[in-house]
């Protein structure tokens, strides 16, 4: 009796080996291409963004892992007011004390709902924690050294987004829009240090990859996009806001690193770049996928578009009030 052998599947090692062979064969041409001035400029901008952002990314990953491992969602539940309307801003401000990246905030919000926290407050925390925590605000101050108002505007716009969405859910949200499994208590397996290591590893891999992609896109845009385009976009203020909002959704950058990408787009006005920083931590492609998998597709289909609109409006309002129309 013979057994049928399964064909070998292509994996990352095979891809790496193939790329290595191609690089060796085309080494001379690759060397000539890398010597081009345009490529050097792209490489310089790319490295500068990554070097500036990496310390804050690493710190954010460690803080997020520590929160996941050593801070119970019950701690937040105990300090929340009983009235859902009053609990929403308190949960939003809790993002200052219990920070976390976008990926970590989704399971934390799920655990909060499972432990009986009002859905509106849990969703407000979900949106606020990645955007108003000290690591993100310090990174924003470093990325915009000549514009201290960007820190205040980002905090105000992000906190307003979290509170408005929390109150909106309290008023118009329905229990059946969230999957029933979310309301059952979730239990994390393993010891605390194992949870810390796994959370930090997961966040570092996912956020680090997104940082590389975002930095590369920003570097390429800084070289390949004609100056006349960015000047024209700067003159069309509303269009610039919409473009930066959509770019935040598509790039899906980690909130600890997105300020450095926004700062590199210096030809654009401050308010569109602020909208980029407010929208990104609230709604992007990876968050929509995480929310759909955690809370259900029906929830994500309603919550994500509403969050996008609210984040854009709150970002513009915070920018105009704090920075002026520039």
Short description:
The protein is an all-alpha fold and 326 residues long. The chain has 16 helices and no strands.
Write the topology of this structure.
Elements: H1 12-25, H2 27-34, H3 37-70, H4 73-79, H5 84-97, H6 102-114, H7 119-132, H8 134-143, H9 149-172, H10 192-224, H11 227-235, H12 237-251, H13 258-264, H14 270-282, H15 285-295, H16 297-323
Helix pairs in contact: 3-8, 3-10, 3-13, 4-6, 5-7, 5-9, 6-7, 6-15, 7-9, 7-14, 8-9, 8-13, 9-14, 9-16, 10-13, 12-14, 13-14, 14-16, 15-16
What report would you give on this structure?
This protein is mostly helical and 326 residues long. The chain has one domain (39-323). It has helices spanning 12-25, 27-34, 37-70, 73-79, 84-97, 102-114, 119-132, 134-143, 149-172, 192-224, 227-235, 237-251, 258-264, 270-282, 285-295, 297-323. Helix 9 (149-172) runs antiparallel to helix 16 (297-323). The radius of gyration is 22 Å and the shape is globular. The mean pLDDT is 78.
